[in-house]
Amino acid sequence: MHDVLPGQTLLWHYAEGVIKEVLSSYGYSEIRTPIVEKTELFKRSIGEVTDIVEKEMYTFDDRNGDSLTLRPEGTAGCLRACLEHGLLHHQTHRLWYYGPMYRHERPQKGRYRQFVQLGVETYGMAGPDIDAELILLMHRLWQKLGVRDKVRLELNTLGTIEERMGYRDVLVAYFQQHKDRLDEDSLRRLNTNPLRILDSKNPEMREIIAQAPELMAHLGEDSLAHFKAITGILEDLGIAYTINTRLVRGLDYYGKTVFEWVTDALGAQGTVCAGGRYDSLIEQLGGKANFAVGFAMGMERLLALLELRDNIPLMKTVDAYLIRVGDKAQRAGMRLAETLRDELPGLKLEISVDGGSFKSQFKKADKSGADFAIILGDDEVESGLIGIKNLRQDQAQQNLPVAEVINLLRTRIE
Ligand code: ATP
Ligand code: MG
Q1: Contact yes or no for 401/384 (Cβ under 8 A)
Q2: Does ligand 1 come within 6 angstroms of the Cβ of 117?
Q3: Which of 13, 166, 205, 409 has the smallest number of CB atoms closer than 10 Å to its CB?
Q4: Would the CB of 271 count as within 6 Å of ligand 1?
């Protein structure tokens, strides 16, 4: 689990601001759910024979002896909340959530035990337009964040449960023939969850997986038409994609559409955003048959992409730094700072504390990153004029009445 230090939070704020802007431009609303849920919820939704449930969950008994789990992802909790509050009854919803998720994974670059996801979930829409909308939304987000050239879209369709059952037999027969080449995990999954073998990250399995029969050949007309409609929309809008028939995703609840936004820029941790359709999960969790499609994006991986940009967008923490020297100036400065904050709500103003000479306070002003120093000595208090100096341009200090200082700062921060 990692700390995000003040220097890094600026970039987080930038990304979060852009994300919220894009989400609201598509009419999405935020939902907030607890960080812990009953363990059973994740077992039932993500699937017993998945990496997450088998080896990655932080599970504990609370004081009542109930088994709880720190959420490893947000889809299950989001859907649980919507079912519990009757939100899926003859309604459609476009929702997002944002927050920490927990998985006991082997830590490495881009893989943490606490990480932050943006999740987007939609309910009540059979698609394929809504499946496509989620892709368009992410496409827009990448563009706004200046990382569109670093990610590409991979798409697949998993068809319906019945279609996958037919394929499952063919797949098991194929892997049985090559049993000697399967790793330990895959051997185990051969009987429990053979599709999951296609999701293996073991490079030694790559070749045998590449030659496996394809699910696409086992899909019915409806599934194929749904998929074709999505790719049609993407083509209309000029959004490039590749079909990756091995893309199955590591969670059991997906059916029909699955997609990933992947990058080559971050080494092994190549998936930045992933999702798909999961209609059947609603009934599985006790709801009436309905429609659901969503995705999750890993914020740490997004931040790593942002750091690769040529010009990293950094927001300032301080616009102006107030220097106060002398007893009268100390008191007058406190009042002046509050007046400036009243008049200029957008101004980021830092005030010097604990005194010091003009020289040492100017050094602090420079270090703060502020563009302006506002200078108050006892002379300035006497004269009623306030010193202001541009720290980033070679200009002399000016002494101005408060109203003019406010006007000058106003033109510079807006
Ligand atoms: P991976 O293939 O990298 O293990 P996953 O298939 O387990 O990812 P999902 O459960 O679909 O990932 O989560 C969606 C996104 O959340 C991922 O694409 C990734 O950006 C992020 N993510 C998942 N696990 C971690 C982690 N341990 N640390 C940081 N980010 C993560
Ligand atoms: Mg994983």
Answers
A1: yes
A2: yes
A3: 13
A4: yes
The one-letter code for the residue type at 95 is L
Mean pLDDT estimate for the chain: 94
* pLDDT of 313 above 80: no
> Residue 99's beta-bridge partner residues?
117
Ligand positioned closest to the Cα atom of 108: 1
Percent of the chain with pLDDT over 90: 84
Residue 248 in contact with residue 258, Cβ under 8 Å?
A: yes
Question: Could you tell me the domains of the chain?
Answer: 6-159+219-306 (3.30.930.10), 320-413 (3.40.50.800)
For residue 180, pLDDT over 80 is answered with yes
Band of residue 269 on the pLDDT scale cut at 50, 70, 90: confident
pLDDT(283) > 90: yes
Burial 370-406 (b: 16+ CB within 10 A, else e): bbbbbbbbeebbeeebbbbbebeeeeeeeeeeeeebb
Q: Could you tell me the distance, in angstroms and rounded to a whole number, from the CA of residue 235 to the centre of ligand 1?
A: 28
More confident residue, 249 or 247: 247
* pLDDT of res. 414: 65
Q: Determine if ligand 1 sits within 6 Å of the CB of residue 120.
A: no
Pocket test for ligand 1, best of 271, 293, 303 (most atoms within 8 A of CB): 271
Distances (CA, A) of 209 to 177, 206, 256: 13, 5, 20
Q: Is the pLDDT of residue 252 over 90?
A: no
Query: What is the pLDDT averaged over residues 12-32?
Result: 97
Whether 273 is in the pocket of ligand 1, judged by its Cβ within 6 Å, is: yes
Does 104 contact ligand 1 (Cβ within 6 A)?
A: no
Q: d(Cα 31, Cα 320) in Å, to the nearest integer?
A: 37
Residue 412 Cα to ligand 1 midpoint, Å, equals: 42
| H helix intervals, 239-343 | 280-284, 299-307, 327-343
For a pocket test of ligand 1, which of 56, 117, 258 has the largest count of ligand atoms closer than 8 A to its C-beta? 117
Burial 207-230 (b: 16+ CB within 10 A, else e): ebeeebeebbebbeeebeebbeeb
